[in-house]
Amino acid sequence: MTEQESKERKLLLQEVEGLLSLITVPILVVDATGHVIHANQAAEHVWQRSLAVLLTKSLQAFVATSKLLGFVKKGKPLRDFPVEIVDGSGKRLPCLCRLHPLYIDQKPEGAILQFTRQQMETEQEKNRKYVTRYTFADIRGNSEAIIALKDSARKIAKSDSTVLIRGESGTGKEVLAQSIHQASSRSDGPFVAINCAAIPEALLESELFGYEEGAFTGAKKGGKAGRFELALNGTLFLDEIGDMPPFLQAKLLRVLQERRIERVGGSESIPVDVRLIAATHKDLDAMIVSGQFREDLYYRLHVIPLYVPPLRERKEDLYDLIHYYLKLFADKLGKEPKLFSAQALKCLIDYHWPGNIRELENTLEYIVNLEIGDLVTISSLPAIIRGSRTSEEGLATQSQSQATPSAPLASATPAPQAAELSLEKTEEQLILQAVQRFGKSTEGKRKAAEFLGISVATLYRRLQKLSRK
Ligand SMILES: Nc1ncnc2c1ncn2[C@@H]1O[C@H](COP(=O)(O)OP(=O)(O)OP(=O)(O)O)[C@@H](O)[C@H]1O
């Protein structure tokens, strides 16, 4: 295969992966014997198994209707064929199956199967969709800031007080909100999220508060419950609250005062037992000064303020996060976890991560997807992170030519053999070299910690761990 063909093939695979992940109903791809060869995230969710486990199973493990395998073997297309699937908890669910056969040289080689629930979802079933994915255990990182944040959030999780989470985009505000819900007495209830910036102003009101039949042209027969009602006995997460238009800020304030809502076009006042968690990356204080955000609403929301610091202010978390996402994507894509060259790792550590953990997650997915060798070098990193550094040599030369504290890799210790380094080993090397460069005095360790972008306490912890080895 030529390099161009190999590139096109990889791109095509990524497109297929991307398309499958966008589909919200479960999809299984099977070979001619019914063995699962691919599945999307919705399938992982329905059958409560990871992709890696799904790939060890056959169709019969998930579908109670034996006829389906016969259709796969014959390569017969199906449209809305009634089947019963057996979900992750062993429950049988009636579904409609679409079968798209895969042929090679006119021989059936497998099929793509899509399953949709047969009956219309009831309102109650819709509520069940609002389940959380995250708990505090999913908030990774050992920096003092993250440990303190988790401690405070755990403490306030049990109460019903309103929480306001601030932090830059991609820092994990929604992860934190879900974790609080999970640790609260409302965890059996729904967690309903709405992004105030993503919904057009005209629709936001009816999405939040619902509407009565005939409230406006196009309103559904029987009306529709809004997110407040859907979150009954649970938690409502108002993301990007700073983007809420002024007329809705006033309405939200009333709801928070009275704990009741009125649907659009309705007159009945409905009590809503909902815990509110709001989040924003905007500077609400400045917005109050400029008249864009209501001060009275701000104080109603600001009962328990939490702040998620940006990744660049807690760089010690990078090691843990890189390790975690590297393994996650390697498992997902059925690849071996990669090794990092010291320079590539240093490049990730030096980068300022404006998109925070979301950007880091995407970067590692990119690296695992595109990296063919076992070693991640600088040239494997996305251009934006590589910046002006285009090669390992480039960085090494740059490091060696600088006599400033930002060049500890140019210390008396020769640069480690990159190919031999695992992520953990690379981290050890960086720490040891920084200490060697700046000295073992308290001041030296302080400088080393500053250079590495970690706290002094973390540096001491790592050195203690190393001394025990
Ligand atoms: N501490 C963490 N450990 C592991 N993954 C995390 C952590 N924090 C966030 N993430 C991941 O980062 C991504 C972004 O998180 P999330 O959506 O909660 O950020 P956000 O601050 O709400 O972003 P936005 O303001 O853009 O809505 C998610 O995929 C999440 O899984």
TrEMBL record:
One of its GO terms (molecular function) is ATP binding. InterPro entries: AAA+_ATPase (IPR003593), AAA_lid_NorR (IPR058031), Homeodomain-like_sf (IPR009057), HTH_Fis (IPR002197), P-loop_NTPase (IPR027417), PAS (IPR000014), PAS-like_dom_sf (IPR035965), Sigma_54_int (IPR002078). Residues 139-369 form the Sigma-54 factor interaction domain. The keyword Disulfide bond does not apply. Keywords: ATP-binding, Nucleotide-binding, Transcription, Transcription regulation. Pfam families: AAA_lid_14, HTH_8, Sigma54_activat. One of its GO terms (biological process) is regulation of DNA-templated transcription. It comes from the Bacteria. PANTHER family: C4-DICARBOXYLATE TRANSPORT TRANSCRIPTIONAL REGULATORY PROTEIN DCTD, TRANSCRIPTIONAL REGULATORY PROTEIN. This is Sigma-54-dependent Fis family transcriptional regulator.
